[in-house]
Amino acid sequence: MEKLVIKGGRPLKGKVTISGAKNATVAIIPAALLANGVCTLENLPMIKDVVVLREIIEQMGARVSFSENGTMKIDASRLEQPYIDNGLVKELRASYYLLGALLARFGRVTMAYPGGCDIGVRPIDQHIKGFKALGAEVEIEHGMISVKADKLVGNEIFLDVVSVGATINIMIAATMAEGTTIIENAAKEPHVVDVASFLNSIGAEVKGAGTDVIKIKGKSSFYGSTYMVIPDQIEAGTYMIAAASIPGGDVTINNVIPKHLDSITAKLIEMGAEVQVNGESIRVMSNDRLKSVDVKTLPYPGFPTDLQQPMTSTLTVANGISMVTESIWEGRFKHVDELKRMGANIKVEGRVAVIEGTDVLTGARVSATDLRAGAALVIAGLLAQGETEVVNLFHIDRGYENIEGKLRDLGADIVRKQL
Ligand code: EPU
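Above: the input record for the complex with EPU. Below: its predicted structure, written as tokens.
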């Protein structure tokens, strides 16, 4: 077991390079199982979720190599039975994309029910609704989910809620359905677009990704391709928020798509930070104590739920009262109790947190309850006076590549130690 030890109060200065997008990668790896040839995926993040997915697909017979520079080669031509009965599936939510991919490829799949961060009820009814609309039968028994179809046939599917996972999963399954599938009320997140672009690179015909209507014309086979995954919007946003948090910060964040970060840029400017966009870089500067703001999480292009927790940490020391409304996950305020141990003034009522900014947080031993809660506590540690210890790092390692190394390069006093 490891912990991060942070001595806070130092403004962040310098340059940081953003890794490939976790939430695109974890869908593109399963989608690569559709190709008959080798898929070469570039710019993948070196994170635990990717390592676990690799292990799952290797156990199924895929041949995989993964090099230090983030390039993964996947040859799924000898994939075996679409049955995954092991604990690895429970380690990440995104294992649900194996349902769509294996249903498309084999017409059937049985696997353990997916796990992931504990941030509230995480239903997959919209995924199931989509698979059924394509002609599949779905059974959930003894913790296993089975999806099978004699033949997948395209259909029109209107999602009841805007779901990233359901949009991507149905899109993947529909690439091999007979005829055309139309997904309405589709999610528009950058990673939805990236998965569509990858599918098109292996020969699929997916149109409209990035809007709320996606059309997929089914095909019977796919070939390998070389594909570069987009930069991680949430990792970039995390560093933007961290940079703005401590007065004197001046950080250039490289390898970003600034458009994906518009909602964060706007919020930081509203709070008094300076943000400059320059090609594929964003520079964030903070001269004074930030001002309080209200934040409401929404599907893209709104403020992302995955940055709500990091932003909450920053608002604990902003000048004034802020209101944070979490409209996607009802259980995403677990970091608040930890922040209170560091002196934060926060009241949570249902999906709303009211934060009264304090002059200073003080270091404490805190525990990451989920991935983005972990990032939030690291930011709190950077802000706080004295020493903060963050434990339960496995959550953070699921989604952030080398977080302590990147922060150290920005001048933070942060080290990873054995517990
Ligand atoms: N929902 C349903 N039914 C479904 C699916 C979702 O009611 O079948 C609801 C959820 O309960 C939630 C809302 O719809 O209230 C949105 O859920 P969505 O399906 O969009 O979430 P997800 O696909 O399970 C992905 C990311 C999350 C991110 C959300 C929202 C991956 C692997 N995970 O989850 O990322 O919070 O979209 O943007 O892509 C993270 O990276 O820390 C993380 C949790």
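Notes for the reader.
The longest strand covers residues 2-7.
The CA atoms of residues 17 and 254 lie 5 Å apart.
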